[in-house]
Amino acid sequence: MGRNLEYPKRARNTVKRYDSRGTYDAGAIHKIINATPVLHVSFPPGSEDPFPALLPMIGVMGSFEYPSADINEPLDCYLHGYVSARLMRLARDSEKGIPVTIAATQVNGLVLSLTPNSHSMNYESAVLQGYGKPVEDTEEKVFAMELITNKVFPDRWANTRIPPDGAEMSSTMILKVSIETGSGKIRQGEPHDEAKDTKRDDITDKVWTGVVPVYQTFGEPIPSALNKVKELPQYIGSHLTQAASKNKQRAAEAAKEP
């Protein structure tokens, strides 16, 4: 079996605190990015404002040059935005592309310990750094829009009015981020209490410890006022059932010691 592709360890992406939880495995990091509904993207504001700009955005990993590329292979991150957004304007004016940091976090459980200081969370987090440029090629733009749409809801692209019309294409911008570095950090397992507390019956006899699983689930779909489709499409119902079950199992697995 071949060695998994890893992002190079550099000063900006090396995990230092609890470094045993760190990962540089490209596949693991890409999966976290793709599984997180909303990413947070930081970039220089392009002015004398001392505060870095930060936006919640929808994004997905993919490769236009190699559409069949596996999640473990080198991929770009496509971010969805509006044509007049500051991020897009700054990226358009930058020769190399605007430097961005992309962060994703998924919480899988609340870890309740004997003392407040030992409480924690089970989580999967990832951070990517790279340079973003607007996608100008129409074919690549549509490719990215399809990826992003299907990340929000699988198979949704093919079950809508497509392709986007001229006005929609003009108002939508896709930022393609070429990744330079990345890292992930994962915590799973039970509470890790200090021996000084676990040996005290006066504490262990009265304080409940354990993990409360946290996972995303879905409610009953509510049709819009203009909806004319009487039966809920199978691809919607199937995804809601399967995703909820998968998320629940994932949170339960995260509560176990690695």
Automatic annotation (TrEMBL):
Membrane-spanning intervals of the chain: none
Name of the protein in its database record: Flavin-nucleotide-binding protein
Lineage of the organism: Eukaryota, Fungi, Dikarya, Ascomycota, Pezizomycotina
Signal peptide: none
Species whose genome carries this gene: Cyphellophora attinorum
Cited Pfam families: Pyridox_ox_2
